[in-house]
Design a protein that fits this description.
Length: about 425
């Protein structure tokens, strides 16, 4: 359980039932539902997966679209197309869309019966994002709609974006940094969350925790504003929202989300990349020492240090289970296959065993490549472990590709150095 959630005696669970569950049977199907009278162009657009945004008026639905697509409010307003009498679809990009956003009319409006929109949305959507203003306790209309959906689709995942956090700040209080609403937030950041805001978030979560079904239910506090609103950063909580969507999105939708300008499925990878590259270069340097055994020891030590730093970044402890899972995912077969592909069978000596390398590096290039590939594979594993998912095949693929990329980088570097030495 997240430490920030425990601050209110477990009232604020970071995730509810079905952690890490991916909706595949219903969600991965092609969308073939369109409104009557649509054109051929509309039909061609129907293959783009749909994110269903469900919430009250001014609950932050458009802000989410604007932030993750990097579109302007005007572009979004002009891009919506009606699909029922009271629901609209926004395709991004408009001409050749990779993703569509379904915006149903604000729930709770006087005289609005959402039955027609809910029926259409259920036949078209692949993921639900419910939006709630954090300081708005009246969410009965949203709760009722989600109850209806979950009673018919027990496995459907739901991401709840708790928006407009600044409305719960006392005067002069800005966003709490670092972002405190995640499983590994530091205690000092958690302690600085305004208590009124905490109580409001807790109330919404406790109500929604009663939803039926087994699908994942994830809560993400966000405050997505414009740069000129004076609430930096304007995309507060965006990384957490992206990570939540990546946790529950089916594969087809995740690929579409990853192509959006404001979406990063693994925001921590930006911090992980320099760690991996720095240690890979250090391992290459260590292998240049005159004594081969000393070089092997240096590479092993550097790799172990790299894994330790990556583990701290992702909030995962490298225990025996973690090392065993990573090692099993890589496997001797993976290493041997790549070794044959690049013509260096000595790479089989580099199979990582509990964070270290067995055997000696054949060259500085090999030490660089193996350390780099191990780091990339570890990042992929740690990201999945953080989200509660496992993909052994994906880890091996990342390792293989990273090893090839690293040898290409090493060859380019060597060629560049040779050109320098031959120039007059």
């Amino acid at each position: 359980m997240a430490r920030w959630a425990a601050a209110l005696k477990s009232v604020l669970p970071g995730r509810s039932g079905g952690k890490g569950t991916r909706a595949r049977s219903d969600s991965d199907r092609n969308d073939t539902r369109t409104a009557s009278g649509t054109s051929d162009e509309d039909v061609s657009h129907s293959y783009a997966p749909v994110v269903w945004l469900l919430g009250k008026v001014q609950s932050g639905k458009t802000s989410i679209i604007r932030t993750i697509t990097a579109s302007t409010d005007a572009e979004i307003g002009d891009g919506f197309r009606p699909c029922t009498r009271t629901a609209r679809l926004y395709a991004f990009p408009s001409e050749m869309p990779v993703l569509r956003f379904l915006d149903t009319r604000g729930l709770g409006e006087t005289g609005y019966d959402p039955a027609e929109d809910l029926a259409f949305a259920e036949g078209s959507s692949h993921l639900i994002v419910a939006t709630m203003r954090a300081m708005d306790p009246d969410q009965d209309a949203v709760l009722d709609a989600l109850h209806q959906v979950r009673r018919r689709h027990l496995e459907w995942p739901i991401v709840v974006a708790q928006t407009s956090l600044h409305e719960g700040y006392p005067p002069g209080h800005g966003h709490t940094r670092p972002y405190p609403f995640e499983p590994h937030a530091p205690p000092d950041a958690i302690a600085r969350i305004p208590i009124d805001l905490m109580r409001a978030l807790a109330h919404q979560r406790s109500v929604l925790d009663k939803l039926p079904g087994r699908g994942a239910l994830l809560f993400v506090p966000v405050d997505l504003t414009r740069p000129d609103d004076g609430l930096p950063p304007a995309d507060y909580g965006l990384d957490a929202l992206a990570e939540a969507l990546a946790t529950v999105a089916p594969a087809r939708m995740l690929a579409a989300l990853a192509s959006l300008p404001g979406f990063t499925s693994d925001p921590l990878s930006r911090s992980a990349d320099p760690i991996v590259m720095g240690h890979a270069m250090a391992a290459a340097g260590g292998d240049l020492v005159p004594l081969p055994v000393a070089g092997a020891i240096a590479a092993s030590t550097i790799q172990a240090r790299m894994l330790s730093r990556l583990g701290r970044l992702y909030g995962v402890t490298w225990d025996k289970r973690a090392y065993a899972e990573l090692t099993a995912a890589l496997g001797a077969g993976t290493v041997a296959k790549v070794a044959a592909g690049v013509g260096i069978r000595q790479l089989a000596k580099f199979l990582p065993v509990y964070g270290q390398t067995a055997g000696a590096a054949a060259s500085a290039a090999a030490s660089f490549a193996v350390t780099y590939a191990l780091g990339k594979a570890a990042v992929y594993y740690l990201h999945g472990r953080r989200l509660g998912t496992a993909d052994r095949g994906g880890i091996a693929q990342v390792y293989e590709q990273a090893l090839r990329d690293a040898f290409r980088m090493a060859r380019e570097r060597t060629a560049g150095e040779e050109r320098k030495t031959t120039q007059p």
